[in-house]
Amino acid sequence: DVSGALCISQAWPGMARTVYNDHKRFLETYLTSYPGFFFTGDGVYRTSEGYYQLTGRLDDVISISGHRLGTAEVENVVNHHVAVAESAVIGYPHEIKGEGKMLAFLPRNISKGYGTETLAAELQELISKKIAKYAAPDYVQVTQANWSNTHTG
């Protein structure tokens, strides 16, 4: 069981070869961090059985009052809650902290009787305990999915 950066050792068809008008940026972003490998920008977890699970973008970081926080780190904590099906964390400009954080999540259909306000407060508390108080989102948005229009089969 190990976590790290997802890097690829060989070229593949359709692989990007540069960034338009900024080849230096392409080299610095994808080829310099791990010499001899193409850095995808993704984090990955490999189980002891050899299965891989993408854990999120390593370059998707929010800077809150000087603390750098990966969005995937917060999403991982939220997604382990029994009442959460999916989540997303985004940063937004904040006058005092530099960046603020908003959490959007899709609740599961459970019969545990969670109200959305109660669940939002519970998620903020969970993030505060598992990561840090500064990691708790400023805003929590409960989302709804219209599964009949978005999924087939």
TrEMBL record:
Gene3D superfamilies (UniProt xref): 3.30.300.30, N-terminal domain of ligase-like (3.40.50.12780)
GO CC, any one term: mitochondrion
Organism name: Promerops cafer
InterPro entries, A to Z: AMP-bd_C (IPR025110), AMP-bd_C_sf (IPR045851), ANL_N_sf (IPR042099)
Chain segments annotated as transmembrane: none
Single Gene Ontology BP annotation: acetyl-CoA biosynthetic process
AMP-binding enzyme C-terminal domain segment(s): 73-144
One of the Pfam families matching this protein, by short name: AMP-binding_C
Gene Ontology molecular function terms on file: acetate-CoA ligase activity
This protein's name: ACS2L synthetase
Lineage top rank: taxon: Eukaryota
